[in-house]
Design goal:
The structure holds 3 protein chains of 3 kinds. Chain A is mostly helical. Chain A has one domain. Chain A contains 7 helices and 2 strands. Chain A has a two-stranded antiparallel sheet with strand order 1-2. The longest helix of chain A has 21 residues. By secondary structure, chain B is mostly helical. Chain B has 14 helices and 2 strands; from the N terminus they run H-H-H-H-H-H-H-H-H-H-H-H-H-H-E-E. In chain B, strands 1-2 form a two-stranded antiparallel ribbon. In chain B, strand 1 and strand 2 form a beta hairpin. Chain B is globular, with a radius of gyration of 21 Å. The two termini of chain B are 20 Å apart. A 4-stranded mixed beta sheet of chain C has the order 9-2-11-10. Chain C has a two-stranded antiparallel sheet with strand order 3-4. The longest helix of chain C is centred in the first third of the chain and has 25 residues. By secondary structure, chain C is α+β, with helices and mostly antiparallel strands. The mean pLDDT of chain C is 92. The chains are: A mainly alpha, B mainly alpha, C alpha+beta. Chains in contact: A-C, B-C. The interface between A and C is medium-sized, with 29 and 30 residues. Strand 1 of chain A pairs antiparallel with strand 1 of chain C.
């Protein structure tokens, strides 16, 4: 091919740049996330009651969508009470309900979020629990 | 066809590099604004729209002016405009892109801009603005590119393009009518609450846009082998003249209603703009510059002898463009917010980051225009005109 | 197989559009994760058809004004901004002739001329701000409150241009950085830069059965109630006292009335 050496050089540089994230982290393994649920508020509850408003597996996969639905119901429809699948009623509020038990954002929310490189902008407005503010 | 844009002489590439440098500065300034917020501009709680929305307002008019060369050619067979319809359409594309960019840089939460499409709101004029601007961009790209492609092959444009051209002729007034409706339907802003707002936008669009087109056509004639044609230039000049007269007349109508009725709400914005109130008059020199430029433009445009002299016509077009750019692109917007709803004065002046971002957006528009015009000119230089300057014959 | 560049670009373009469009359509059509029937209103919530307020100007002295403004701003984490052009205010005092500019008159009674009037969002019945919002980020609730959805606001500020009362403020910079010493109410969020905010009639308190903070702190100078209910206190007051509203000629039908005692 014409100017073959230019093309090959270009391809090598391209691969070098694009593959950088892969070979930079070779051999280093980031530990899997370990969200802690031993906050003082949760510890105060008797052991049988230490569960979230919905089962853990549901919350793991669906808490984002659930919070999204909550914010539309509270802000746009004026509905403030959520009836969980076990019939219990909760006020729909990230700041006042979720963070009441999970008051350790850094050891809970941030654990998974940092691992998956997700930065939800909830905290730009919703106030983090006091213990964890810098 | 687009490969014509990467082949050029030293002058062409110098222009491209200068534009890229200005764009770079604008992007850097925008990143600063994105990180800190719109507080880096001169806007305030009282004057919540400023340079960006002003420039958008003015450029919507420039974009619509493409119809001013398309309509006479396609609807009334005015052959002289045959060579420059594509130039008008390409100017419209660049202008609409600038409009959309100016709105984008003005948003407080630009990453959420798609909310306008995810949650369509038929009662909001701004929703329609997004729809008509996008539609107009699509129409002009489709029509301009197809017609230019046909010209390059030396054949007539395909017949399916004709309905799109007709639609674009009807669509063009809609974009600045909708933009005028942004202002004309707001109950609390006396400078804007006038039935002739859309008419004023039409008048300034059809004088400001063609004057830019005329200047660009003359630049093309000077630096390339493409000649827009003497008749096209003169007809454009006549269009600019009549619409500039209308524009100044409409401005006079506003003054009459305000000052003959003596209603304070109507008078105060105009008093602020042209004389200042209580010593606060940042915009006074700017508005008078616009007025004087407008008068100079009319003096040079109205007498046919002056209009036929191309040097004077060029000066008149520059004066027209600048006069309208100040009036629609700045005075109209700021004047709507001063005095504020409490009848006190909060002044506005753009800051350096704001100006740099605006220059960056204009440079992006001019880059798009340069690339499109280079393509168009390259195609047109290859064809040869018959002795009537009408039917285009491919070079042997 | 050989194909020319044009055909290749056409196929690539159409595939991209179909691919992106298909994924978006699929995501958009996926159902709500949680069923809508599993939500309800708080049993104590105050329900109304058209919430409104009466401001008794005769009961508003400097101290009352300061108290209600501070209470509102404290409850809702409204930052205090030094630079006046970027100030944010939900409830604030304004001189009479600036609150009612069409009543400007050099022979106006002196005590009224020099008095201060508390201004807030009027929660109009025919709000121009709601009409112009391109995303319905500001919308009118069924109970009459002109509400703000901070999650949806794109910061275009059309509502600020449309409001004839100057009731809206924009976050030109990050409010947490502008007022770092703000004592935050942990039960209410702040806002971020780039969104518009204003009084929302304490919708979060109404949802719990409480009256708005400013009303609570006003010692009777502000009276809150349902304008649609002929037996409400506000309606009784309006029956018996002459009242004015700001700029009624614009047809926005404000729900905030001002009486002189």
């Amino acid at each position: 091919m014409y100017d073959g050496w230019k093309i090959i050089l270009g391809v090598i540089i391209f691969i070098g740049l694009m593959a950088f994230p892969i070979y930079y982290g070779f051999g280093k393994a980031t530990p899997p996330p370990d969200p802690k649920v031993d906050t003082p508020e949760i510890m105060k509850l008797p052991e049988s009651e230490r569960k979230c408003i919905e089962p853990k597996d549901f919350m793991k996969t669906a808490h984002m969508k659930m919070l999204d639905d909550w914010r539309d119901w509270v802000v746009r429809d004026g509905m403030t009470v959520f009836i969980a699948s076990d019939g219990k009623q909760y006020t729909m509020s990230l700041q006042n309900t979720c963070m009441n038990c999970h008051s350790n954002k850094k050891e809970f929310c941030d654990e998974c979020h940092n691992y998956t490189a997700v930065s939800p902008y909830c905290w730009d407005c919703h106030i983090e629990p006091k213990e964890n503010e810098l | 066809m687009l490969e014509a844009a990467i082949k050029g002489g030293k002058r062409y590439w110098t222009l491209i590099c200068c534009l890229l440098a200005l764009i770079g500065v604008g992007v850097a300034a925008y990143i600063y604004q994105f990180m800190v917020g719109l507080g880096v501009t001169g806007m305030s709680r009282d004057v919540s729209w400023g340079l960006y929305i002003g420039q958008f307002t003015f450029l919507v008019g420039v974009a619509a002016s493409g119809v001013m060369v398309v309509l006479p050619y396609y609807l009334h067979n005015h052959k002289a405009f045959g060579r420059i319809t594509v130039l008008g359409e390409f100017l419209a594309i660049a202008a609409v892109i600038m409009c959309m960019l100016f709105i984008f840089v003005d948003l407080g939460q630009p990453l959420r801009v798609l909310n306008v499409i995810l949650h369509p709101t038929p009662n909001s004029v701004m929703f329609y603005d997004m729809v008509v601007l996008s539609g107009y961009l699509f129409l002009n790209v489709l029509v301009g590119w197809t017609v230019l492609g046909a010209e390059r092959k030396g054949i007539a444009a395909p017949s399916w393009v004709k309905p799109f051209i007709i639609i674009s002729i009807a669509w063009a007034p809609s974009i600045h009518t909708v933009t005028a409706f942004l202002y004309a339907g707001i109950p609390g802003r006396h400078l804007w609450l006038t039935a002739i707002m859309a008419a004023r936008f039409l008048a300034s669009a059809f004088s400001g846009g063609p004057s830019l087109l005329l200047i660009l056509a003359l630049i093309l004639r000077k630096y390339t082998k493409f000649d827009p044609g003497q008749q096209a230039i003169q007809t454009l000049g006549k269009i600019i003249t009549y619409f500039m007269i209308t524009n100044v007349f409409f401005l006079g109508l506003e003054f009459f209603t305000a000052f003959y009725s003596q209603i304070p709400g109507h008078m105060h914005p105009l008093v602020y703009l042209y004389t200042g109130i209580d010593g606060q008059g940042k915009l006074v020199p700017v508005m008078w510059t616009s007025a004087i430029l407008g008068i100079v433009a009319l003096i040079l445009l109205v007498p046919p002898k002056f209009r036929r002299n191309e040097t004077l016509l060029t000066i008149a077009c520059v004066a027209t463009f600048l006069s309208l750019w100040i009036e629609k692109g700045f005075g109209l917007i700021v004047g709507g917010f001063v005095p504020n709803p409490f009848e006190t004065i909060t002044e506005y002046w753009p800051t350096l980051p704001e100006i740099l971002i605006a220059i960056g957006v204009w440079s992006i528009g001019f880059l798009v225009l340069t690339i499109l015009y280079k393509t168009a000119v390259t195609v047109k230089e290859e064809v040869v005109f018959d002795k009537y300057g009408q039917r285009q014959v491919k070079a042997e | 197989m050989s194909m020319d560049r044009r055909t290749f670009l056409k196929i690539a373009g159409i595939s991209t559009v179909l691919g992106v469009g298909g994924i978006s359509a699929g995501a958009g059509l996926s159902k709500n994760v949680v069923e809508a029937s599993s939500i309800t209103r708080n049993s104590e919530a105050l329900i109304g058809k058209r919430w409104g307020m009466v401001v008794d100007l005769s009961k508003f002295d400097d101290e009352t004004m300061k108290r209600v403004v501070e209470a509102c701003h404290r409850e809702h984490n409204v930052p205090s901004v030094d630079y006046e052009k970027h100030e944010i205010k939900w409830l604030w005092p304004e001189k009479f002739e600036h609150a009612f500019p069409e009543q400007e008159d050099e022979y106006l009674a002196e005590d009224i001329k020099h008095s201060y009037v508390p201004l807030l969002c009027n929660h109009c019945d025919n709000p121009p701000c709601v009409r112009v919002c391109p995303t319905q980020a500001t919308f009118k609730r069924e109970d009459g409150i002109v509400m703000m959805d901070m999650h949806r606001c794109i910061g275009c500020r059309f509502c600020m241009a449309a409001c004839p009362f100057g009731a809206r403020s924009f976050n030109y910079k990050d409010p947490r950085k502008l007022d770092p010493k703000l004592e935050k109410n942990p039960e209410f969020p702040t806002r971020m830069r780039g969104v518009v905010e204003k009084c929302t009639l304490c919708y979060e308190r109404l949802a719990k059965g409480l009256e708005p903070t400013c009303v609570k702190e006003s010692n009777g100078a502000l009276i809150f109630g349902d304008l649609d209910d002929p037996n409400s206190e506000v309606r009784k007051i309006l029956d018996e006292h002459y009242s004015i509203r700001r700029k009624p000629e614009l047809g926005t039908k404000p729900s905030v009335y001002y009486i002189f005692g």
